[in-house]
Design brief:
It holds the Pfam family SDF. The structure is a single chain. By secondary structure, this protein is mostly helical. It has one domain (21-433): Proton glutamate symport protein (Orthogonal Bundle), CATH 1.10.3860. Helix content is 70%, strand content 0%. The chain has helices spanning 25-42, 44-49, 51-79, 83-115, 132-142, 148-151, 158-164, 167-183, 189-210, 213-228, 230-235, 237-261, 266-272, 274-283, 290-298, 304-317, 320-336, 343-356, 366-378, 387-390, 393-418, 424-433. The chain is globular, with a radius of gyration of 22 Å.
Length: 455
């Protein structure tokens, strides 16, 4: 079976096979992370002062996310042969997202009940006072209903969605624009061609921004360690260790079982995406790797419309790491405050979390807002207990972002296979070599985009 056609306007993933290790992005980002940890540990005041370095790099990436999502979704829809296929891909994506979220919540629920990291803390809810950012996150959560992801779907204006960086709203507008573009027929063909050409420019800008990735990772990690300190890691080390261990179990065992069913090795997939994982680790933001992730997945031969619809939507609806965090954190707070929770009450929490976990990707404090919304809705666990874990949230956000990235990568493969648009032999060939193989049969529907190289 010949590999599926992919529009040549798609940037090629970095050609990691021809460059020495010291010129690859992941090496420099890892070096920057280690240097940042040492700087924040040995000179905390210097590390804290480097916060603008990390936030500026993440802001530069976020600047490009909405145009990349818009161009990818519109270009993908404009390139399909029927609008029915677009609707089919979207429906299958949402069905898989629901299953993935439920699995992640259940894994977290089982882990926190088995290991009980909050047992013996005996914190009194009346002694916990909400302060600073935590108070604002809880207030936002209390004002947020379970239906918020539906009411927030439609932006007040098309420009506002792009200005605020709301991925979910940008996807909504992009789908409408792409469908309308396809519906007008030949009139829209020049616009589709323009979208492909504009994508080349935007991805070239991304290439320039990515040159600063090691600097951004250094600043972000130095600030995290300098501001929160190494001691913060040890004070609640049991909870942090359980969260990281549970997330690793979910990725290797649960997602590994899914990829095994596709006849794909999960470890090879993780290795193929190692640069994206290292980037997320350094910046604590899964958004920083979104454009590169889409490029890498298209490099596996996955159709552009599938990648364009599944990956950005997954950043709002398929947050596996955030789901594990929600179930772990909620029950941990109950254990730490000696709040009894029966199986029925925990299942009730889980049902609410399925809804409150949606649509919050890319929002500052999204994990806390979703947790506060859950606790406020159920009412059985004191929301003030959030203060027990507020100090370590920055360290846990790293793991949330990494797990979310892995979950959305696997989701895209599943949807592509479900659409019968995944050449397993081709995918395994790419994963084995670490780079896409040349395809002579690839159509030249639009001008090719220069390769998105690392360094």
């Amino acid at each position: 079976m010949a590999p599926p056609d992919v529009p040549t306007s798609t940037p090629s993933p970095p050609d990691t096979g021809k460059r020495p290790w010291y010129r690859q992005l992941y090496f420099w980002v890892l070096t920057a992370i280690v240097t940042g940890v040492l700087t924040g540990w040995l000179w905390p005041s210097v590390g804290t002062g480097l916060e603008p370095v990390g936030t500026t790099f993440v802001a530069a990436i976020k600047m490009l996310i909405t145009p990349i999502v818009f161009l990818t979704v519109v270009g993908g829809i404009g390139s399909v042969d029927s609008l029915g296929r677009v609707g089919r891909v979207g429906l299958k994506s949402l069905l898989y997202f629901q299953a993935g979220t439920l699995a992640a919540l259940l894994v977290g629920l089982v882990a926190v009940n088995v290991f009980q990291p909050g047992a013996g803390v005996h914190a009194h809810p009346g002694d916990l006072q909400l302060q600073g950012d935590a108070r604002e996150y809880v207030k936002s959560g209390e004002d947020q209903g379970w239906w918020h992801f539906l009411t927030d779907l439609v932006p007040d204006s098309a420009v506002g969605a792009f200005a605020e960086g709301n991925i979910l709203q940008v996807i909504f507008f992009s789908v409408l624009f792409g469908v309308a573009l396809k519906a007008v027929g030949p009139v829209g063909e020049p616009i589709v061609d323009g979208v492909h050409r504009l994508s080349a420019v935007v991805f070239k800008i991304l290439h320039y921004v990515m040159l600063a990735a090691p600097v951004g990772a250094f600043g972000a990690m130095a600030f995290t360690i300098g501001n929160y300190g190494i001691s913060t890691l040890t004070s609640l080390g049991r909870l942090i260790g359980l969260f990281y261990g549970t997330s690793a179990f979910f990725v290797i065992v649960v997602l590994g079982a899914v990829t095994a069913a596709l006849r794909i090795n999960i470890f090879r997939l993780l290795r193929y995406l190692r640069e994206e994982f290292v980037l997320v680790l350094g910046t604590s933001s899964s958004e920083s790797a979104l454009p590169r992730l889409m490029t890498k997945l298209e490099g596996l031969g996955i159709r552009r419309d599938i990648v364009g619809l599944t990956v950005p939507t997954g950043y709002s609806f398929n947050l596996d790491g955030s789901s594990i965090y929600l179930s772990l954190a909620a029950v941990y707070i109950a254990q730490a405050t000696d709040t009894p929770l029966g199986i029925g009450q925990q299942l009730g929490l889980l049902a609410v979390m399925i809804l409150t976990s949606k649509g919050s990707g890319g929002i500052t404090g999204a994990g806390f807002i979703a947790l506060a919304a859950t606790l406020s809705t159920v009412g059985t666990v004191p929301a003030a207990g959030i203060m027990l874990i507020f100090g370590i949230d920055k360290f846990m956000s790293e793991c949330r972002a990494l797990t979310n990235l892995a979950g959305n990568s696997v989701a895209t493969l599943v949807v592509a296979r479900w659409e019968k648009a995944l050449d397993i032999a081709y995918v395994n060939g790419v994963l084995h070599t670490g780079k896409p193989r040349p395809r002579a049969e690839q159509k030249r529907e639009s001008p090719p985009v220069p390769e998105l190289r690392d360094v």
